[in-house]
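Final paragraph of the annual report: two paired records, presented back to back.
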Amino acid sequence: MALPLWAWAGLAAALAQTGRNAAQSGLTARLGTLGATNVRFLFGLPFAALFLWLALMWSGEPLPALTLRTIGFTAMGSLAQIAATALMLQVMRTQGFGITTAWLKVEPVLVALVGWAMLGDPLTAPMLGAIGVAVVGVLILTLKPGAGRAMLTGLGPATMGLLAGLAFGMAAIGFRGGITALPEGGFLVRSLTTLVLSLAIQTGVLGLWLALRDRPALAGSLREWLPSLAAGFLGALASAFWFIAFSLTSAANVRTLALAEVVFALAVARFAFRQRVTPRQMAGIGVLLLGVALLMRVSP
């Protein structure tokens, strides 16, 4: 079965995002969480603008005119992504990576429902079933035996984790809504135009916050410019492919395929850092890939 273009774009995005996370991990220790997050936007914006300029030169299309609907949807997605990241990091401080990831990865189900309600994205029972299988695969991957009881303790962390997943879902809906609201241009130019707009909003909002609340982190982001360039480039490349996928299919399809990033991260851990992959993780990978394959087959 030949993969559609949106699937190739999503897989390329997941690979680039895995590389960005690896490049950004060292910056977190030196700059703090918000400082390292700022690098993603601040140093990603120039590369995104370069990608857009190249697309305009290659296609010969004019820059699409921004509409209020595009600006509104993109601003919603940009702010939701910042809020989701903050909620996720807060939950990870108390609950650990595995349980937090499990809460977050119900996101594709939420995205499917919200995308159907807000954007009219297609949603069928077989699609929901395939998304559910993929989510179960991630739960097997991330949850250790006996962790289910820990997930149920403490309504506060559970609520915050689910809210983070919902916020990530709203970000995906906002970005897809911003792309589809542009009145002109091919999918590539519309995707990259929305990407530049979103990164400009995020750079401005987070930069203002750091200037007012954490100037050392802001100064550190600028001081660590050389390693930040790599993280910024990979982040912009990943986002460009995510936005291209959003322009071609529903946000639910894209966010379900994004679960493949967990597999790429395990591969990096296994081959780059010599970390062992357990039989439980292998089983989770199998179920996850089955869900993604089913989604490829049943998506309109």
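The closing record of the year follows.
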Amino acid sequence: MLSIRKYLYIIGLLAVLLPVASCGEYQRMLKSTDYDAKLDFARRAFENKKYAQAATVLTDIVTMFKGTSKAEESLYLLALSHYENKDYENSGAYFRTYYMRYPKGTYAEMARFYTGYGYYLDSPEPQLDQSTTIKAIEELQAFLDYFPKSDKVPQAQNAIFELQDKLTLKELQNAQLYYNLGPYMGNNYASSIVVAKNAIKNYPYSKYKEDLEMLILKSRYQEAAQSVEEKKADRFRDVIDEYYSFINNWPEADNILRIAQKYVKE
């Protein structure tokens, strides 16, 4: 029987040699012209969570398998390897190539889902460019249209709601910026109102709807309060109209209403 010391030595030696052997096999696969062997290696690499290796090897062979029985699998596995490696831009491109090439393919449902969900995971903070967010919504909505009975529907819907809230928050921040600028170099309150109203129109179920409505009311109030005297009555009427458009009563809104009513004769 092996002693404990020898046993631990063998285990340690294997721990060193196995990664080296694996790395050596990877290098051989990069130079190999045996595409079936490369696909087999990519499968094993993916299963072992070596997604970068799988993606690199698969990139070399997907074009070679085009038109064969292994074309679908290799292309989907390439896209999925990029996805698991958190390279959502490349995964989205390959997933999209897959479902465009094989609209009724074996992996079409998941390819459409992962395209949108990858963009969702890659969506930046609200203050940054939101083109990725918009792509995510479009792809996820297309997934819902094509596969309305998929078990991924709730996950896709929740992702869309989150993405829409992010776009709404960006518009709220823009509207708030106009509000903060106030009368600087023009009537920025009017711009704040336009941005906020468009956000409510585009995203009527956002959790930021009430914030947008209050900002509209505050902008109406500031616009009226800072008007010349002859315009105050008309503009404060707009304030009152805006107030009555609210469903809920807000303490801040009540105070604005009282001030506005002083300028309007009943």
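The two ends are 103 Å apart (CA to CA). This concludes the annual technical report; the extension proposal builds directly on these records.
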